[in-house]
Amino acid sequence: MGRRSNGEGTLFQRKDGRWSAQTYVTLTNGTTKRICITNRDRNIVKTKLQEALSNEQRKISYIEKDWKISDYLDYWMKEVQPKRIRETTIYTYSVAIRKHIKPVLGGHKLKSLTVHDVRTAMSELENRDCPAAMRKKCMEVLSSCITCAMREDLVFRNVAQLAEAPKYAPKETTIWTAAQAALFLRSVKEHPHYVAFLLLLTYGMRRGEVVGLRWCDIDFDNRTIYVKQQIDRINGVIKARELKTKNSRRQLPLVDKVFAALVEYAKKNDIITARFNPQADLTVEGTIITSSVGTPLEPRNLNRSFHQLTEKIGLPRIKIHATRHTIATILKELAVPLKDVQLILGHSNITTTANIYQHGTSEVQRAALTSAQNRLLSENSEVRYNTES
Q1: What average pLDDT is seen over the chain?
Q2: What pLDDT band is residue 280 in, cutting at 50, 70 and 90?
Q3: Helix (H) or strand (E) holding 36
Q4: Would you list the domain boundaries of the chain?
Q5: pTM assigned to the model
Q6: 178-357: CATH superfamily
Q7: How far is CA 341 from CA 16, 53, 246, 326, 345, in A?
């Protein structure tokens, strides 16, 4: 029998009767390592050796650890995601992983996960009455995790992307008309959080941006509001954090009635407003909207007040985030250029403003159709054609 060449590996029987094979492989970090494959069945050892040699020839890295889905998800959430996404998103992902993904897929091996496994898992979640929105979120989380595994050469395709995503149609957002929004603001003028509601409905600011706005973010001399941080409760702690995107960090004109409301609010509460400081670090100190004891307002408490007042006034119940949709639609009705609406709301993409936040209204449609009707059916709308050749 001829001598083996380098890279062919060796296959031999040990003194204890088991079969063993040895060869060199390239790891995912680029280094080379000698591995040993052992089994009582010679054919199993031979097959694994041939697989290792074939992968090495095809430049496919050798995977030392045979990850389970649950273990890799833990590694991904602890080592990879904190550098990429915000704490609030980490929390959302953690809930999806702990409550839904691990129970149906956690025991599967990462490298052997199939499209069928993912489909079966989604069906199991549906049988457990997991909402379609959460199943869709689980697919997004799983797909993102497997994409990371692909970058680390642990798998060679993303089976979560190949499986069909759960069908999910978001509910249509309910918004207020301009008249309803005006009624709300008139009715809550004496409420301690009136300024917060005014900011929500005038500028379409996000809830976290409103409770995170500080006196030092207001340039009273040049009548400008600097939106640069937001406040959220994260893992039980109220924290100030940067806004999500570059476009979210924006300057807004301080219009007259909001200016007057801020001045009156400060005077009524004996507040000495902080000097404008566009370079101020992120902090929960010095916020305009506070609790009854002067601490930063809990974001959920603003929701609670908003819904209680809405019910008391007798207006249709809407989500507090729908105030952004409301002002976006009002600005559309006022023929404000779409680009300006995008900048006011702080959207990164103008299509988000147009396709998600701006809604059609029956009043505008009725006026448009009435104009068309008058044009088409008016006795004075006769058209003369020149029939001369």
Answers
A1: 89
A2: very high
A3: strand 32-39
A4: 10-57, 69-162, 178-357
A5: 0.75
A6: Intergrase catalytic core (1.10.443.10)
A7: 77, 60, 16, 12, 6
